[in-house]
Amino acid sequence: MLAHLGYQDLDALVAAAVPAGIRSSRPLDLPAAASEPDLLAELKELAARNRLMISMIGLGYHDTFTPPVIVRNVLENPAWYTAYTPYQPEISQGRLEAVLNFQTMVADLTGLPTANASLLDEATAAAEAMAISVRAARGRTAFLVDQDCLPQSVAVLCTRAEPLGVEVVVADLAGGLPDGDFCGVLLQYPGTSGQVRDDRALVAEARARGALVTVAADLLALTLLRPPGEIGADIVVGSAQRFGVPMGFGGPHAGYIAVREGLERLLPGRIVGVSHDADGQPAYRLALQTREQHIRREKATSNICTAQVLLAVMAGMYAVHHGPEGLRAIATRVHRHAVVLAAGLRAGGIDLVHQEFFDTVLARVPGRAVSVVAAARDRGINLRLVDGDHVAVSCDEITELEHLAAVWEAFGCPAPDEEEIGRNAPDALPRTLLRSSGFLSHPVFHRYRSETAMLRYLRRLADRDLALDRTMIPLGSCTMKLNATSEMEAITWPEFSRIHPFAPLDQAEGYLHIIKSLETYLLSITGYDAISLQPNAGSQGELAGLLAIRAHHRAAGQPQRTVCLIPSSAHGTNAASAAMAGMRVVVVACADDGNVDLADLHSKVNTHRDTLAAIMVTYPSTHGVYEEGIRDICALVHDAGGQVYLDGANLNALVGLARPGRFGADVSHLNLHKTFCIPHGGGGPGVGPVAVRAHLAPHLPTHPLVPEAGPAGGGGPVSAAPWGSAGILPIAWAYVRLMGAAGLTRATQVAVLSANYLAARLAPHFPILYTGAGGLVAHECILDLRPLTRQTGVTVDDVAKRLVDYGFHAPTMSFPVAGTLMIEPTESEDLTEIDRFCEAMTAIRGEIDAIAQGTSNRSDNPLRNAPHTAQMLAGDWPYPYSRAVAAYPHDRLRLDKYWPPVRRIDGASGDRALVCSCPPIDTYAG
Fold first, then answer.
1. What region holds the Glycine cleavage system P-protein N-terminal domain (predicted)?
2. Choosing a second label site near 78 at 20 to 30 A (CA), which of 170, 390, 601, 652?
3. 53-67, 200-214, 247-261, 279-293: least confident range
4. Alpha carbon distance 505, 495 (integer Å)
């Protein structure tokens, strides 16, 4: 590869590609690389330092039993965890069906017609509901929150509300609504205290006063309780964690949101809908997928561009495997354990605050709460200390009678006759709120009860998709690279997966070691001074970084600094995040070479000098180039009193070569799901830590329940859990430990080599839109198809779909420039795979040339009709080219052929006729 480019070694290539002014002069300060056996032994030792207790803390997190068939065949299966976001729906039908199952589950249980493809967690889902309420209210900006809502959700609401000028009013709503105008109301069902309250009159009053009502609901409880949609809720949010997704010290978990009819086009994030393919067959796709941050940009109310797909798939499959009867049985067992627990406490003379509850009992023990919690801990059980006089105890799927007996002992109650109590204790659910409506009636929730059937269903869905386990995924900007098995190994170990996020920290010493050492590693790599691992997506990291900048200016007595400069090439989340941070976006032009237009930047800085808050730049640029002027850009903004936010999306082109915190940037978010090998999982999970220079460190996120997770007096939380998606941090930690300083540096060098080799191979066939010094690119390159489109009518869509016939996922389409393909081969792909891709693209160029020369029909050709399915080949063949050309454009495909399950899908039709849950089975007839 080096010989093809004319460089003697990797150092020579990097010296030519990376500006000397930003390159680091010293190696990374990291531990020596570990072997895989040594790494696993080290992880085992760290796991042993986590103390595994029975968790009865509650607060929105519950232990659960993940069916092993789902653990092995989803969570531990690279066909599921290495897949990318299903922007190419023809090769994503399996995971799209799986997510549609999740959406249907949520819609059925909540009693509302439309749910999205998941959100990041319950707290941010509540914040998204607040944003919908504000947007729908058109002027009213007070949001009313019941005091029995989860405290972490209330805290995240306050973080999100303040920059937008929204007032969060927390009140006891048990007695009704206070006076005043509100855009929305948030209720918890059941409440954090465990109480199940009949709020129908409250909901009706709120709606009569013009407010949208959001209910944060427990999905398992909804199998027994009347769904919020039936009591008038406009929006329902929550978490699907207890549907088979481990607690993992806080995440990742699939948050959910569902809305009533009329609000579906205000939903944030992604929605899986049903459309049809070129033959009229039903087919799944992402509907309305770009309307929010990509189209509305600085007018967006949400910056969410991801979902928790892998976790949503797990939760949906949990429902598929158990079915409605199984879920009700689990919920009934959970409730009966809570009822028996309560009866035993009463028999022992303990006063209970609420008589109606689902899974959580709140006990009043004046002056004894601390000692009761300590006594339970001595017996291996964590309870929730509410205050000095109250203890809450939550039951879950793994609760046993022996756990209840230990709790009774901790309260000082004599051991009751458990069987007698179980027979005589009445249920504690209000009769007026018992569920009478059915749910999960679609056949998919009734077919796969046996492990054999479930195993085959999961395999069948996986076989419909193209993931990284089959082929390279050459997506520019998205960095689809190896997620090594040894890095993934520890996340399913119970010592990591079953730790509650609010467990005492002395029970999580292994986790804390990983967290603190990973923070140290990332600071060494980036050159920053402080970091927060709390943001559980890149979008949340962006928001946290911009909120830190906002707080810094305010602390300096300059609240007028609200202008955020953003290059026109930026990802849509940049503008959306700035708007959510209370900033005003001013767009900076890009020059003809793709770099930031320095003349326009000078002009904009001068115009907004007194109000400039920040600039958001991506480096290397979104165009895949190491811009020579990055230090000048930083200096210019600093001279005007602004801060530099450097988007870390492309950090994998800097690791070991340059440190953004040392060449002028003040803050970056880092995508651990890209550069540091946490898998994309079909569109999530993600982790987006925010790293800052020392002057911004006091403003990093904190957490109300675990102050050790952030700086004293820092900013509010941006995620529900103290360290966000802590359950997958061992993956990134293991990656750094396996690679060491030399390995990480070489990975960056090879990524740059791969991109430049691929660009050189394809340049004779497709123009490379932007290059830097010496005609080199960074870690990705952009192919310009626009001249070919004008000449032949062949579009980027045609090329993307034709690549499916060659067995490839398409590159990034029409971003950052419409009509182009952005390609990133990464360091993980070997020469054979890169050459195979180059051969496919070269062959496609030959097919385009045939159209240009008139030897191939302009409107009826292999590109326009791609992808080709097996069903097409088996039927009549009306096309002017052969079946062999359609399906086997290269001989090697005869030995290993991926067949797309559907033809090209009609996206516009799916947006016009939005279907967001499993369609009736007769839809598939014929």
1. 1-411, 448-701
2. 652
3. 279-293
4. 14
Q: What is the pLDDT of residues 119-150, one digit of tens each?
A: 999 999 999 999 999 999 888 889 999 999 99
Compute the CA torsion angle 145, 150, 155, 157 (nearest 10 deg): -50
Query: Is the Cβ–Cβ distance between 75 and 311 less than 8 Å?
Result: no
Decide which of 659 and 815 is more confident: 659
The pair phi, psi for residue 169, each rounded to 5°, is -110, 115
Instruction: Report d(CA 911, CA 288) in Å as an integer.
Output: 6
The secondary structure element, H or E, covering residue 731 is helix 729-762
CA nearest to 112, candidates 268, 217, 19: 217
Question: In this predicted model, which residue has the larger pLDDT, 387 or 270?
Answer: 387
- Report the amino acid identity of residue 214: T
**How far is 527 from 711, CA to CA, in rounded Å?**
19
pLDDT digits (tens, 9 = 90+) for 443-493: 999 999 999 999 999 999 999 999 999 999 999 989 999 999 999 999 999
Query: Is the Cβ–Cβ distance between 27 and 656 less than 8 Å?
Result: yes
Distance CA 567, CA 600 (A): 10
Helices 309-347, 451-463: inter-axial angle, 10-degree rounding:
150
In angstroms, rounded to a whole number, what is the distance separating the alpha carbons of residues 103 and 97?
10
State the pairing for strand pair 167-171/142-146: parallel
Considering only CA atoms, which of 870, 765, 779 is closest in space to residue 828? 779
Q: Using alpha carbons only, give the angle 116, 118, 123 rounded to the nearest 5 degrees.
A: 115
With b for 16 or more beta-carbon neighbours within 10 A and e for fewer, the 29-39 pattern comes to: ebeebbeeeeb
Neighbours of 419 (CB within 10 A): 10
**pLDDT cut 70: percent of the chain above it:** 97
User: Mean pLDDT, the chain, as a whole number?
Assistant: 95
Q: Three-class SS of residue 409?
A: helix
Q: DSSP string spanning 556-613?
A: TT-TT--EEEEETTS-HHHHHHHHHTT-EEEEE-B-TTSSB-HHHHHHHHHHTTTTEE
User: Model confidence over 545-596: pLDDT tens digits?
Assistant: 999 999 999 999 999 999 999 998 887 789 999 999 999 999 999 988 889 9
Which CA distances in Å does 33 have to 29, 606, 734, 737? 12, 48, 10, 6
Pairing verdict, β 667-669 and 690-692: antiparallel
pLDDT in tens, 694-709: 999 999 999 999 999 9
* Residues 803, 810 contacting (CB under 8 angstroms): yes
What is the rounded end-to-end Cα distance, in angstroms, of the chain?
A: 51
**Alpha-carbon dihedral of residues 560, 562, 563, 569, nearest 10 degrees?**
170
Read off the pTM. Answer: 0.96
State the Cα–Cα distance between residues 73 and 455, nearest whole angstrom. Answer: 7
**pLDDT for 714-734, tens place per residue?**
999 999 999 999 999 999 999
Give yes or no for a cis peptide into 414 (omega within 30° of 0).
Answer: no
Beta strand 255-259 pairing with 114-115: antiparallel
